[in-house]
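step 3/5: co-fold with zinc ion
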Amino acid sequence: MAAHAGEKAQKTGDFYCAKCDEKVHVTSGHTIPKCPNGHSEYETRRNEPGNK
Ligand SMILES: [Zn+2]
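step 4/5: write tokens
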């Protein structure tokens, strides 16, 4: 499931840039920003238990 910068996040979680794998944390209902390297396409993955 992919997401793009400028869209509203439907769920809180971490988005990983499809180009450079940079992680961006987005809260549900907030607009997804571009990644720090200027990309706008994300692969979405939920926070996984035990990932901290
Ligand atoms: Zn990127």
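step 5/5: annotate
The CA atoms of residues 17 and 30 lie 17 Å apart.
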